[in-house]
Amino acid sequence: MEEQNTEAKLKTQLKQEKIQLWNPPYTEDDNQPGTQHMQELAERYAPLLSLSVQEVGGALEAIRVQAVKRGEGNKTFRETNVATLELLLPRCCKKDPKAKNYLETRLDVQAQEMVDRIAEEFGLVHIKLILNGKTLSMDKRLDEQGVKNHSKMMVLKVSDTEWRQQANEEDEKRRNQKESLLRTHRGFQILSERDGSEETSTFLEIADQRGNPLKIPHKERKALILAIGFHEKGRSLMKKKQFENALCHLLQADYQFSKCCSALLTSADNFAVLQLDIVWCYRTLEALSCLDDAKGRLQIAENCFLQCYGEHQQRLLMIKGNTGKEEVLFLRLYLLQSLLSFLEGNDTQAQHQLTKVESLYSRMCPDSEKMAQLMGFGFSEREARLGLRACQGDLQEAAIHICNQRQEREELRQREKLKKSKRAEQINTFTALGFCRRDAARALHHADGDVDQAYSILLDSREAAQLTNNNTEGVVSPEKVEQLLYLGFDREASEAALRLTGDDVQSATQLLLSHQGVLPPELLSVSPSTSSSSASSPSSEEPSTSSNSNAKAERELVNEVLQDIPRHEEDYLDLTLEEESELIAFLKTHLSRGPVHTV
Q: Which of 132, 300, 314, 396 sees the fewest Cβ atoms within 10 Å?
């Protein structure tokens, strides 16, 4: 990182002075350095960066060579579509440790072709290629995996045994990662379709910061539940230090959030917190090439916090009565901004943000003795930590705050209990009139508890049911096919699964998951009409074995994904700050070399 920091600062100075090292007098006609002028630059810049002339000279030459090489590569790429890639080879393959190695290739070829060329040219047997912290898949094209002209590629050498083991592990890892994404999507998709109209089914309710349910259009509610579900799964994986898998889930959450309107995204802090988590994963995976994307995400997070909390957090203060706990989010925001500024060579801005971080850190780290006292009162570690942060370290105020929060949660539970009891009585009234419990529950839900309106809905639906016919047997919805294709299933298998389940996309997904995406011949031989009727017969006396099996699988899947939903609504604010402390120490060490003067 130090070399990157030095080169970034030099590039800033060169840009300010409009010095182009790839042109004379710094580069001669034969692309050799203009020694005298390069030496003068090194001598002038060394005191500005508090570095030796030799260090600055070496960094300047590295920048010059890189610029010359980039110019040549750009010309070649424009004329022939042949890209120039920089290879970071294993030490044993480097004749000159300081020399850089390049490879020219088209980007529309599979990665395996490039691996074969590198292996032959440098006498390697088994290697793998790393780009931005991710291993390239051999069976995919370079451009499909983000490889661009001038990309830097790490080449890792592996032994025969390690190669076979890693190949098996990578296959297993890809399968597990895909399975995790599919199961998370499927589980929260089931929950997103539920609206509380079925008495025995678990469902998710979207509420404001006071716990009051929010009315959201069905399409956006579905996307929001999927987004929150993927986010929570990603956060769960981050706690387990599985950052690569976590990032996959967080990016899926980002995609689902993109389907929500901007007003919904800025009315709560979920979207902003997601951006912080994505950039934190970038940092942990050392994906430093994602700087531009990281900067954009942090700006989105900052803007979202501003709109959600208010310019001086007055909206947050009005809703919660304090702003102490949310300050930990700003600590992480400023810390990541400081890191990005440092990597760009802007030490002044990095130090400015780090000063804000240290101020917040001193307030966010609770006193260990006060923590012990609160826990001695019977409060949990999380309650003690969040309580002290909310009350700026005041022990008595923190105890009162925690008690008040407990009381508010209990009152909310009692209101929910009373609401369910009243709803059960209303359903019993309708069942006494001859309606089934499921239809009664659904009607009451759509009528927002209005008994008269629910009764009208039930009468209308009974009349409509008598007129309903099933003229579209065997026909599958193109939109539902596309949903299954998006999840990674084949078109033929997707269409067959939909036909077998009466065009029910949830049942079709479960059916495909149960058979790893390939339906066995015995299932394909079942006629669509028979399968459809058995899969969609809620009024039958004895549900089919298949229906029971699907219902059980759904319950297991829902219970699985619900394990990633934290029981405490402020879990995302309960950062221990251990990782943040390490990053703060790193930045302080490298920013303490003295002030950097600008030209």
A: 396
